[in-house]
Write a sequence for this structure.
């Protein structure tokens, strides 16, 4: 098994394919746009989590963890996807409205993260694999700590949110604290104090468990492996074309999203349909459960199974979260 990340001298791999696809299929430009109805999804998922927390306040512990695994994890994961849409300004034209929508989606997720995610996620698109700019890249010590043991990888998935929380600290070129980050923290802490005070310990544990399951040791947690871990040779980004896209707002269409990040979640399958000749030739996944077990038991697959690079390319990052290849359609000043 490799004991280091796979090194690439090339810049992030999506810009070139985006140019090719948009040249061959200019009709994809019609798919670029926002979906304000995503706010309704946010409101529904927040309502589901708060309602469950209320009714589970006196439930037995087994029911709390069962509900967190079977229901809460799915609602939380969908809220993560909604925060992701907000980070790309794919709900409203007004950036502030997207930020507030992300803060609303953050509420059942216990820890304040939506505003910080907005800041570093856009860098991930433009500088995929560049450790000092891509918070999705694991630490070297993280990969070494986990190695390829089954227990280590299981614990890594279970506590994946903890590692995610630590990674932005290495992004020295991004200012983590600002006015909106503080607002996010104040709103989130107020919400959680209210949950603890009015609903009690069991409701709080339910929200915590649902949060950790949604991004951790759960079939949904395999999404993090699907997106950028080297499960198909040297191909850096993989999509997932399975049934869970229905409840996860098509988050599995990850190659399509990286190629066209200004297309909202509901139109990503149309991107694949139009440019099917490009995406059908790429490796992809159809089962999160199968991928979860493969990651745990395949000794050739570990936290090291990522591509790292220093080449930043000629990329301009904009607040609008439009990658250069797409923005080039609108202006030649990229």
């Amino acid at each position: 098994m490799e004991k280091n990340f796979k090194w690439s001298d090339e810049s992030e791999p999506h810009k070139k394919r985006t140019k090719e696809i948009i040249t061959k299929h200019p009709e994809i430009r019609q798919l670029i746009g926002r979906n304000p109805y995503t706010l309704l999804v946010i409101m529904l998922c927040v309502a589901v989590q708060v309602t469950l927390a209320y009714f589970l306040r006196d439930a037995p512990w087994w029911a709390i963890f069962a509900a967190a695994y079977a229901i809460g994890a799915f609602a939380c994961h969908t809220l993560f996807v909604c925060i992701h849409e907000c980070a790309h300004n794919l709900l409203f034209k007004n950036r502030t409205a997207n930020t507030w929508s992300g803060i609303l989606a953050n509420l059942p997720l216990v820890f304040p993260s939506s505003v910080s995610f907005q800041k570093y996620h856009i860098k991930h698109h433009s500088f995929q694999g560049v450790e000092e700019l891509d918070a999705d890249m694991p630490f070297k010590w993280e990969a070494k700590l986990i190695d390829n043991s089954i227990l280590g990888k299981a614990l890594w998935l279970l506590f994946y949110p903890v590692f995610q929380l630590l990674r932005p600290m290495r992004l020295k070129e991004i200012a983590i604290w600002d006015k909106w980050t503080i607002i996010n923290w104040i709103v989130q802490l107020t919400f959680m104090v209210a949950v603890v005070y009015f609903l009690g310990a069991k409701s709080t544990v339910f929200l915590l468990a649902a949060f950790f399951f949604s991004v951790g040791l759960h079939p949904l947690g395999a999404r993090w492996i699907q997106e950028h871990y080297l499960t198909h040779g040297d191909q850096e980004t993989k999509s997932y074309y399975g049934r869970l896209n229905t409840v996860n707002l098509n988050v599995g269409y990850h190659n399509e999203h990286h190629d066209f990040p200004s297309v909202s979640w509901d139109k990503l399958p149309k991107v694949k349909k139009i440019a099917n000749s490009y995406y059908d030739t790429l490796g992809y996944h159809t089962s999160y459960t199968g991928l979860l077990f493969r990651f745990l038991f395949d000794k050739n697959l570990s936290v090291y199974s990522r591509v790292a690079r220093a080449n930043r390319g000629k990329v301009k990052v904009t607040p609008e979260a439009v990658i250069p290849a797409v923005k080039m359609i609108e202006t030649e000043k990229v």
About this structure: The chain has one domain: 6-327. Strands lie at 6-8, 239-240, 284-285, 307-309. Residues 42 and 148 are 37 Å apart (CA to CA). The chain has a mean pLDDT of 92.
